[in-house]
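Input sequence (403 aa), recorded before submission:
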Amino acid sequence: MSDLQIGLLVIGVAIVAVVLLFNWIQERRFRKQADAAFQPPVGDALMQPETVPRETHSRSERFEPALREPVFDASDDMRDVAEVNEPHLQIDADLSRADAPLEDSMPTRVTSAAPAPPPSAHAPYVAVTAPEAPYDELIEYRIRVGGDGVLANVFADAFNHARTLGKAVRWAGLPAAAAEWEEIQPWRDVHYQQVVVTMQLADRNGAAQEEQLSALCALLQNVGQAHGLRVACDDVADAMERAQAIDRFCVDVDVLIGLNVVARGEGAVNLTRIVHEAEACGMALGMDGVFQLLDSRGEPLYALCNHDAEPFNTTVMEGQTSQGVTLQFDVPRVPDGLKVFDGMVTFGRKLASEVGGILVDDNLRPLTDSGIEKIRIQLTHIYERMEARGVPSGSRRALRLFS
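Predicted structure, token format:
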């Protein structure tokens, strides 16, 4: 190797090292700027009036499990529930994944756990930090926006555009001089000191795509540039990994159970009697012609639909018949699922007895006590997995993921 080649090689290595060092310095500087943008201001103790020590606080209520790290493991085998032998029931796990997410409530109010001590001239000043933003790190991608009293209406265009991205987007803001976060409504005359925008990473339509996350980030960055706001988007690659893992888990536990009441032989069931029993049980007829038993939140526990093409209606003619009816149970969306399933089985057997029919699975095989117990065992496994993943069945988080 000649001296010229050696010299060029040394120069090339030096240039690469300089570029890497420059990139590292730039990345460190930008990270410090982003952190500083959302660091609550700390007052100067010498410039503050007499204050009292900060009170000890505690949360009065907790809606969802507090998770500091995503608990989904992409390498974890999530197939054991699907492999349970179930000879007496056909399960439809390919539900319609309509995107109609249920909005989570904002964080619970922080209340004082002890009375404040009397003012003291020697009490040290303690900076009061901003309350935690309403962000679910398990199932959401986050973008933080900071500014000096930014008006809500600057987000109007981005707010409307975000609705077309195909995933649920939440907008939360901390009003100026306020202690609690609230849902942003762009038409209100409110100024915010901080804003957090989140996109749900998965639902029954599947996992969020990189294009959706990047588009939301770009929307907020454009707003930030136009109005002098500080914008920090979470890492898209990390969010994509979480989205894929969450979606794989949801597919494994997204189960719909159906029990059918049909006539014995070639006959038909009396629809009038079935409607009477449904109403007596407290079921409500929806606009879609399906009876539903609702819980205290107005969420369905299980549903009753007609086998015939014509749905149920408010006026059923005396003696009207049908080929049969189906009771449906959306497993991950129901709290205390085993108890609700048992109630649905009891109601199905009552319907069968009332119309002289029989309770069968989707293959028209009679459901015996042994078959029902096998279903309960499978449900137990599903609910244990949901609890372990931080998504209890029927919880707000579950209702959002399975929507």
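Checked by second reader. The chain has a mean pLDDT of 79.
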